[in-house]
From TrEMBL:
<dbReference type="InterPro" id="IPR015048">
    <property type="entry name" value="DUF1899"/>
</dbReference>
<dbReference type="InterPro" id="IPR019775">
    <property type="entry name" value="WD40_repeat_CS"/>
</dbReference>
<protein>
    <recommendedName>
        <fullName>Coronin</fullName>
    </recommendedName>
</protein>
<dbReference type="GO" id="GO:0001755">
    <property type="term" value="P:neural crest cell migration"/>
</dbReference>
<keyword id="KW-0677">Repeat</keyword>
<keyword id="KW-0175">Coiled coil</keyword>
<comment type="similarity">
    <text>Belongs to the WD repeat coronin family.</text>
</comment>
<dbReference type="InterPro" id="IPR036322">
    <property type="entry name" value="WD40_repeat_dom_sf"/>
</dbReference>
<feature type="repeat" description="WD">
    <location>
        <begin position="177"/>
        <end position="218"/>
    </location>
</feature>
<dbReference type="Pfam" id="PF00400">
    <property type="entry name" value="WD40"/>
</dbReference>
<dbReference type="InterPro" id="IPR015943">
    <property type="entry name" value="WD40/YVTN_repeat-like_dom_sf"/>
</dbReference>
<dbReference type="GO" id="GO:0051015">
    <property type="term" value="F:actin filament binding"/>
</dbReference>
<dbReference type="GO" id="GO:0007015">
    <property type="term" value="P:actin filament organization"/>
</dbReference>
<dbReference type="Pfam" id="PF08953">
    <property type="entry name" value="DUF1899"/>
</dbReference>
<dbReference type="InterPro" id="IPR001680">
    <property type="entry name" value="WD40_rpt"/>
</dbReference>
<feature type="repeat" description="WD">
    <location>
        <begin position="83"/>
        <end position="125"/>
    </location>
</feature>
<feature type="repeat" description="WD">
    <location>
        <begin position="133"/>
        <end position="175"/>
    </location>
</feature>
Length: 481
């Protein structure tokens, strides 16, 4: 055992995060009167970045989510515009890590849509996505952007398929449709986006190389219980899971994908029945667990010393959470030693909760804020699909993060004829010589089409504005009378 000082040290572990405490903001800093979606689906229903908070809301008939500028706190008017192009309920939303005005949504209507939000938020409801990604045959419950490659988006549906899209061309480039035999609970990219891990209703956790389309590790009965699991990659390549024991106790565990026989650590927690959503901060190695339907957030530090998963504390409140958003590090207030900010969804409101490390000094605390993933993509989509890997490009938070200008998401639909010819099509052999000329003609025609479409939509807009103006004039006239 060593001497008593050693034992002492084990009892009280040194950690700068031992005294992290959570605090809900005052009422006037909440977003009020929001009808949070009631759809039965275990996603977080909320996505945030340094500019906006997005929340899936109730929508009669279709599917919608709100996008609010962070400063737009207080009561949200019933008539506030939404993003409402889906024809079925929205199940999951995810902000693009490389563009704070681009958000993806997956829906019960079997599509994924990618949206461009105006710089200052919505003034009118948005019904036209930049691109619609069609490829799933059942509802799409999971969307997750690649951490380091621009415009690469993963979606997973209840058809048990995972599709990886190049959003810049609107193409499905990888389709993993034979790896899962049951519902996929969640999907997580690793730090550089070379691997994904998934948890599924068959109680397996799988580690997949998406470009080779191979399962490189799997664990059966990760957690023995039947209720939903979660599995996420940590920065060091290990995998953290939450699930249930056979006795329906909630569990958390840590795994090394190179040897999945036994967990590195396994902890039992309590017997509540909500799924535990893990939120992970790679900079501090803290995991925050938010149970759906719980009214608390528990947080743990992961280290390489036994017992590896160290309980830090619990933030408790009175109201249960319906969902939760988690701010990227660059959106936090470093001057206040804020190390995490959650956006807790209630039935009718969204309440920010701020996690702070108590420090006396006003100086920048560089031990709390190592350089963190910035908004620049390290790779282009094509480079990643060709096999390149890159870690996130890091930025310093020493002077706070100032959001830059985002370039608009441009989608250039690939011309079918520009693709490499498939060798087995007869028509290719016949039409080969004309092909190059045709392709450029078709491209020009496509451009022309696009311009005409744009003109038409401008005309339509003007017509509808005209109608609106004349209606308003009539109403004004009535009032004047």
């Amino acid at each position: 055992m060593g001497d008593s000082a050693d034992t002492m040290r084990r009892v009280v572990r040194q950690s700068k995060f031992r005294h992290v405490f959570g605090q809900a903001v005052k009422n006037d800093q909440c977003y009020d009167d929001i009808r949070v979606s009631r759809v039965t689906w275990d996603s977080s229903f909320c996505a945030v970045n340094p500019r906006f908070v997005a929340i899936i809301v109730e929508a009669s008939g279709g599917g919608a989510f709100l996008v609010l500028p962070l400063h737009k706190t207080g009561r949200i008017d019933k008539s506030y515009p939404t993003v409402c192009g889906h024809t079925g309920p929205v199940l999951d939303i995810d902000w693009c890590p490389h563009n704070d005005q681009v958000i993806a949504s997956g829906s019960e209507d079997c599509t994924v849509m990618v949206w461009q939000i105006p710089e200052n938020g919505l003034t009118l409801s948005l019904t036209e996505p930049v691109v619609v990604l069609e490829g799933h045959s059942k509802r799409v419950g999971i969307v997750a952007w690649h951490p380091t490659a621009r415009n690469v988006l993963l979606s997973a549906g209840c058809d048990n398929a995972i599709i990886i899209w190049n959003v810049g061309t609107g193409e499905a480039l990888i389709n993993l449709d034979d790896m899962h035999v049951d519902v996929i609970y969640n999907v997580s990219w690793n730090r550089n986006g070379s691997l994904i891990c998934t948890s599924s209703k068959d109680k397996k956790v799988r580690v997949i190389d998406p470009r080779k389309q191979e399962i490189i590790a799997e664990k059966e009965k990760t957690h023995e219980g039947a209720r939903p699991m979660r599995a996420i990659f940590l920065a060091d390549g290990n995998i953290f899971t939450t699930g249930f024991s056979r006795m329906s106790e909630r569990q958390l565990a840590l795994w090394n994908p190179k040897n999945m026989e036994e967990p590195i650590a396994l902890h039992e927690m309590d017997t509540s029945n909500g799924v535990l959503l893990p939120f992970y901060d790679p900079d501090t190695n803290i995991i925050y667990l938010c149970g759906k339907g719980d009214s608390s957030i528990r947080y743990f530090e992961i280290t390489d010393e036994s017992p590896y998963v160290h309980y830090l504390n619990t933030f408790s409140s009175k109201e249960p959470q319906r969902g939760m958003g988690f701010m990227p590090k660059r959106g936090l207030d470093v001057n206040k030693c804020e190390i995490a900010r959650f956006f807790k969804l209630h039935e009718r409101k969204c309440e920010p909760i701020i996690m702070t490390v108590p420090r006396k000094s006003d100086l920048f605390q560089d031990d709390l804020y190592p350089d963190t993933a910035g908004p620049e993509a390290a790779l282009e989509a094509e480079e990643w699909f060709e096999g390149k890997n890159a870690d996130p490009l890091l930025i310093s938070l020493k002077h706070g993060y100032i959001p830059g200008k985002n370039r608009d998401l441009k989608v250039v639909k690939k011309n079918i004829l520009d693709n490499k010819p498939a060798a087995n099509k007869k028509s290719d052999l016949i039409n080969a010589p004309k092909k190059a000329a045709d392709a450029s003609n078709i491209q020009n025609e496509a451009k022309l089409d696009e311009i005409l479409k744009e003109l038409k939509s401008i005309k339509d807009t003007i017509t509808s504005q005209d109608e609106r103006i004349s209606k308003l004039e009539q109403q004004m006239a009535k009032i004047a009378d």
